[in-house]
Amino acid sequence: MKYVYFALKKLFEQKQYIIVFLLVFLVSIALYTYLLLKNVTWDLLWKMNSPYYNVLQISLNIAISLLLGMAISMLVYIVRNKKKGEGLTTLGAITSILFSAATTGCYVCGALLLPTVGITASLKALPFGGLEVKILSLGILYYSIFEYSKSILGLCKVNHAKFLLLQKGKIIVTFSKEAFLNLKPLFLIAGFLILIYLLPFVPDKYKLNFRNSSVPANSYACPASV
């Protein structure tokens, strides 16, 4: 945590990175708002879904947008100052944002981007209505920020070890500890994806229902189904 604090302190000493952070944050909030209200009005969203679900989803969207702003501003700093960056770490951040955006929407009416990532056709199929995906995305983003922080502070040791080597036309596989450390972000991404695609197979008895039970189902209709 202290690495992140000192890295952000160093980063935001320069106004241009504060501007990058704010722009990314505002664009992310705008995107999440668009996805959230694409298939449903604001009033209908609060009428159909549990208030707890709406509050949690909006809060997680704001938290993800904040971390995304930090991550992107850090990445810009790393690129501009030619510091050691992690390509796989950046890929992990992009993956987490994609799935977080895909699980943004109405619990009853569905999410606009959910079918595009091939998870399921409805947020109802996920144990916590997609909230668990956003929490996992927060974890991936924080990991990216932590790795970027070490790079900004000059704490990263250059590790040239490779898992696969090409020598004299032959592919050589190495099993050194250093090589596996370079693949750590890849393992993290793989675990993230496997877990997400297994979520719809959780038995229904373990899934929470976030529909507003105080409002009869026949008292409203999703715009997409009208």
Name its key features:
57% helix; mainly alpha; globular; two-stranded antiparallel ribbon; 8 helices; 226 residues; single chain
Total number of beta strands: 4
SS-based class: mainly alpha
Q: Domains counted in the coordinates: how many? A: 1
Backbone CA Rg: 21 Å
Query: How would you characterize the largest beta sheet?
Result: 2 strands, antiparallel
The share of residues in extended strands comes to 5-15%
Average pLDDT, rounded to a whole number, is 78
**What's the N-to-C terminus distance?**
49 Å
Strands in their spatial order, largest beta sheet: 1-2
The amount of helix comes to: 55-70%
> How would you sum up the global shape?
globular
Element-by-element helix/strand order: HHHHHEEHEEHH
Number of helices: 8
Q: pLDDT below 50 for ≥5 consecutive residues: which ranges?
A: none
